[in-house]
Amino acid sequence: MASRPLLIFDLNSTRFGVDATLVRESVWLPELTPAEEAPPHIAGIFSLRGQIVPVSDLSLRFGHPARPYRLSDQIVILELDNLLMGLIVSEVLEVIELSAEAIRPPPEFDGEAHARLIEGEVRVGDDIVTLLDARQLMHQPQTPNIPPLPRAGEAWPVLSLSKGGEGSGAEHPAHHFCPEATLEQRAVFHERAKVLMEAAAEAEGARLALAVVELGDEYFGIELEAVQEFCDIAQPSPIPCCPPHILGAISLRGNLFTLLDLRAALNLPRAAQGGGKAVVTLLGEQAVGLAVDEVHDVVYLREEELQAAPQALREQHGAEVKGTASYGGKMMAVLDLPALLAREEWVVNETV
Fold first, then answer.
1. What's the pTM value of the predicted model, to 2 decimals?
2. Can you tell me the distance from the alpha carbon of 39 to that of 134, in angstroms, rounded to the nearest whole number?
3. E strand or H helix at 321, and its extent?
């Protein structure tokens, strides 16, 4: 029986899927540069290690109202016949293998404005996932005023940042990316764009890959190689006879994980339970979830960007903190997660 790999993502609380073989990679949403004379659904362009990537806002393409962009938004980058296209999504969820027979044709309506973008519908667990046709998503109507998509390595044919003046025509709806963002959020979007612009992809191996998480209004960096995945958490199920830093158990695709609270270990006040995100990692040979307020970003630090931790931080945590780095205009503490989880307090031996 033939199967297809699908990348499942969330967009405004609706599940979508796309052929995973056409997905080059996914990145956190960076600052986008406006592209004049592009279709209205093109939110802008950015440079991905020297390659120009146009980015489509799927909400606009489906005719929905524009929504403010968030730091948690991501871009799924499709590649087909050397053409690149980014799709703004709320969250990349997982890659699954699905039987081709499980895909049902999309419903037919009188108006077929969007039918050509939808390949079918499929059930994944308790969700109905709309399968998008990546080939049609990357298709652009070729008119004198709309340039074709750039091929990998090519520049966007028309790029202007002018705001008006003689011969400028209609003004682009947003000459400043995400104008409603705070200064701190703009700094994060801008820093992401700078990192993605780096031309030497081979230099990435010499950098420290970090997931940036927030706990109690403070930023912390966790090495990506220690992270298995991220997930949303609701109210965890309580576990009897456990200390306060054991928040309970959560279920992820049928697997149960113990949810740990790092706040006490990091000298932060305890937060109300429920909501937030979990970072799934290993405690010995057992997978556990670490409760955080938000997962903001993935960054790649150069060696010189990682500074020694302040003396007070070293006295409190020793080898558990590798150093500090600037992120979004604030200071981020880079954690050595294996060292932090090596504390004896995480192991609970209780008999009920």
1. 0.59
2. 17
3. strand 321-327
